[in-house]
């Protein structure tokens, strides 16, 4: 039983005991008073009757008539006259007791013990006997009952007022208790929030201690995040420029090319500082480093301002910039060339930089991207100074057919529910399935095949159809869980959170499902959602997590350390991006970074999974880092336990 309920029981018990005790004491006292008054009345009646009889000069007939008349006129239960020898001369009893409004149980519970009144009868100086008078007690019980009812009602009224006052006081006391409970529950869920200190001294001490613990825990998290940023810079970034080194850039680019929510077309810019050896001889290492830093500074602007952009240093003189958007590579490359001309002018006017920029469909393999960019870069190297060579592939089929036509195809497929879910397992250390990842496929052509999300999702995002697609995926997943009781999760595009009705409609879908189904469904959002839509992400958690829905963050990596409110996001798990875990078996620095990520996330009570794992050695290294689950091609190929 909760503390508040125990206090309520104590208050109610005290009020009830007070009412019952008050009624009992009041009734008992009144009974004694009325009983005493009845005794005095009997004595008075007996004395008055004896005085009247003494005036009859001992005439038995007249005395009998007087007693009979007195009995008939008064409320007597019995009248008796005995002579001097104690023999009854005249005696009358009331055959029919006067009815009373007091209940029989009340009369039986509180009987009245009233002694009869007695008085001596004389004729002058001669004693002629004694009279005994006993009055009726029905009037006494009736008065006692009415007084008891009145006192009970008054005491109940006082008790009710006391109960209301106690309820108000308890409600006031309960607020800080509930706040402390919510704060403690938030800590267990990885949410660290400080609250206002209440006025109650005892609760103020508790709240102050909880706030101090929360602040200290938050400071520990911030320290871990800062340590993680430092470790990321040391292990996965180029020491001089701070950009991702070649291995990390390639891993990040590979992950970007494999995602379903990327653009249909994107751009890649390769930059090369010409004649690096000659610059070292002419400017020295310090001057060359200044030139390299100027190039890195010009590149760093884009990842900092545009989410999804990637920048890295491939080797001593080569840099790369990935642009996840169509029709921007030309303008970006020209702006970058202008920035380099201005930035390198102060280092040495004779420095030359070649830029090779290409725009291709995103479904091209990475080798095709680098081959096209290298060809453009080789052509740019033929010129002097800062030279740009731009190459673009022909428009894709989607662009050629027109975006309006594609919007109509996607909308028609969603309206007619020509959709299905694929299933990829997320497995635990014991090869058991933790849940199934379920990307959505659409049949754009009623007579065609189901299309993967990578083909239609970019256009759905552009035309604000992602919310409808995500809700349809959620409905399909709930129906599938109800059939086989297997846990599933669906992806939610960050842009779907911009739809004002998405959260309400998702909640309605989940609420309509049985409780066992709700506990087996999960929603995943990409890491940018925690930055771009943090408040909406929190609201999504507040609406759906109480129903049993799991909420996770996918494609997570070094950006987690930049989310200063991650402990308030209301998440259940995090999936590390393939760019973070790829090649971990042969890279001790990457393993140390992943292990630090796991420690930080575990401190927030989050489970940690890895996605996109392709290699058995990487999988074993991830198990050694104490991850909770793995998904990807390697996981799909395992012998999974039912």
Describe the structure.
With 642 residues, the chain is an alpha/beta fold. The protein has three domains: 3-161, Beta-Lactamase; 264-399, Reverse transcriptase/Diguanylate cyclase domain (Alpha-Beta Plaits), CATH 3.30.70; 403-637, TIM Barrel, CATH 3.20.20. The chain contains 21 helices and 20 strands. It has an eight-stranded mixed beta sheet with strand order 12-13-15-16-17-18-19-20. The protein is rod-shaped and about 160 Å long. GO terms for molecular function: cyclic-guanylate-specific phosphodiesterase activity. InterPro entries: Cyclic-di-GMP_PDE-like, EAL_dom, EAL_sf, GGDEF_dom, HAMP_dom, LapD_MoxY_N, LapD_MoxY_peri_C, Nucleotide_cyclase. Pfam families: EAL, GGDEF, LapD_MoxY_N.
Summarize the structure.
This is Diguanylate cyclase/phosphodiesterase. The protein folds into three domains: about 5-160, Beta-Lactamase (2-Layer Sandwich); about 265-400, Alpha-Beta Plaits; about 405-635, EAL domain (TIM Barrel, Alpha-Beta Barrel).
Secondary-structure map:
Blueprint: H1 3-54, H2 60-73, E1 76-82, E2 88-93, H3 104-109, E3 117-123, E4 126-135, H4 138-188, H5 201-236, E5 244-245, H6 246-258, E6 265-273, H7 276-305, E7 310-313, E8 318-323, H8 329-345, E9 353-361, H9 366-380, E10 386-392, H10 397-401, H11 403-415, E11 419-421, E12 424-427, E13 433-437, E14 440-442, H12 453-462, H13 466-484, E15 488-492, H14 502-511, H15 515-518, E16 521-526, H16 529-532, H17 534-544, E17 550-556, E18 573-576, H18 578-581, H19 588-602, E19 607-610, H20 616-624, E20 629-630, H21 633-636
Parallel strand pairs: 5-7, 9-10, 13-15, 15-16, 16-17, 17-18, 18-19, 19-20
Antiparallel strand pairs: 1-2, 1-4, 3-4, 6-8, 6-9, 7-8, 11-14, 12-13
Helix pairs in contact: 1-4, 4-5, 5-19, 7-8, 13-14, 14-17
Protein name: Diguanylate cyclase/phosphodiesterase
Pfam families: EAL, GGDEF, LapD_MoxY_N
InterPro entries: Cyclic-di-GMP_PDE-like, EAL_dom, EAL_sf, GGDEF_dom, HAMP_dom, LapD_MoxY_N, LapD_MoxY_peri_C, Nucleotide_cyclase
């Amino acid at each position: 039983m909760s503390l508040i309920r125990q206090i309520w029981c104590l208050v109610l018990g005290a009020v009830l005991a007070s009412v019952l005790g008050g009624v009992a004491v009041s009734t008992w006292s009144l009974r004694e008073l009325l009983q005493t008054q009845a005794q005095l009345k009997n004595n008075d009646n007996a004395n008055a009757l004896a005085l009247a009889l003494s005036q009859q000069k001992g005439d038995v007939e007249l005395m009998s008539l007087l007693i009979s008349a007195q009995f008939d006129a008064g409320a007597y239960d019995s009248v008796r006259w005995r002579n001097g020898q104690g023999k009854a001369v005249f005696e009358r009893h009331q055959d029919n007791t006067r009815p009373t409004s007091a209940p029989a149980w009340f009369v039986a519970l509180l009987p009245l013990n009233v002694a009869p009144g007695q008085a001596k009868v004389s004729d002058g100086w001669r004693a002629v006997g004694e009279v005994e008078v006993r009055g009726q007690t029905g009037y006494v019980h009736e008065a006692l009952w009415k007084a008891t009812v009145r006192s009970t009602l008054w005491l109940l009224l006082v008790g009710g007022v006391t109960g209301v006052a106690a309820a108000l006081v308890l409600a006031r006391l309960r607020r800080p208790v509930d706040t402390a409970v919510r704060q403690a529950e938030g800590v267990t869920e990885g949410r660290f929030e400080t609250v206002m200190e209440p006025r109650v001294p005892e609760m103020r001490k508790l709240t102050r201690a909880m706030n101090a613990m929360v602040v200290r825990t938050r400071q520990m998290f911030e320290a871990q995040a800062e340590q993680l940023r430092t470790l990321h810079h040391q292990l996965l970034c180029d020491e001089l420029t701070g950009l991702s080194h070649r291995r990390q850039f390639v891993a990040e680019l590979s992950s970007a090319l494999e995602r379903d929510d990327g653009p249909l077309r994107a751009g890649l810019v390769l930059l090369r500082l010409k004649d690096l050896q000659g610059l070292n001889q002419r400017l020295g290492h310090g001057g060359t480093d200044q030139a390299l830093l100027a190039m890195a500074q010009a590149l760093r602007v884009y990842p900092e301002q545009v989410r999804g952009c990637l920048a890295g240093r491939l080797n001593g003189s080569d840099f790369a910039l990935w642009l996840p958007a169509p029709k921007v590579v030309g303008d970006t490359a020209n702006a970058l060339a202008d920035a380099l001309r201005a930035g390198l002018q102060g280092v040495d006017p004779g420095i030359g930089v070649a830029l090779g920029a290409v725009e291709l469909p995103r479904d091209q393999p990475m080798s095709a991207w680098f081959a096209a960019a290298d060809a453009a870069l080789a052509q740019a190297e033929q010129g002097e100074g800062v030279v740009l060579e731009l190459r673009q592939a022909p428009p894709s089929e989607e662009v050629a057919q027109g975006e309006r036509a594609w919007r109509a195809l996607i909308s028609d497929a969603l309206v007619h529910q020509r959709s299905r879910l694929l299933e990829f397992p997320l497995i635990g250390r014991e090869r058991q399935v933790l849940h199934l990842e379920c990307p959505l496929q659409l049949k754009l052509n009623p007579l065609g095949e189901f299309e993967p999300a990578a083909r239609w999702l970019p256009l759905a995002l552009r035309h604000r159809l992602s919310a409808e697609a995500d809700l349809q995926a959620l409905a399909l997943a709930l129906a599938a869980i109800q059939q086989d009781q297997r846990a599933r999760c669906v992806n939610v595009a960050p842009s779907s959170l911009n739809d004002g009705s998405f959260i309400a409609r998702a909640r309605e879908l989940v609420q309509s499902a049985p409780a066992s189904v709700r506990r087996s469904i999960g929603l995943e959002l990409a890491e940018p959602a925690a930055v771009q839509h943090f408040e909406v992400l929190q609201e999504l958690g507040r609406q759906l997590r109480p129903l049993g829905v799991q909420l996770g963050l996918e494609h997570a990596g070094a950006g987690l350390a930049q989310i200063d409110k991650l402990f308030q996001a209301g998440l259940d798990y995090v999936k590390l991006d393939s760019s973070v875990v790829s090649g971990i078996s042969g890279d001790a620095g990457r393993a140390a970074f992943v292990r630090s990520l796991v420690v930080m996330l575990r401190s927030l009570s989050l489970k940690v999974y890895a996605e996109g794992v392709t290699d058995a050695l990487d999988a074993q290294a991830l198990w050694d880092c104490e991850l909770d689950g793995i998904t990807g091609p390697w996981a799909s190929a395992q012998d999974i336990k039912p």
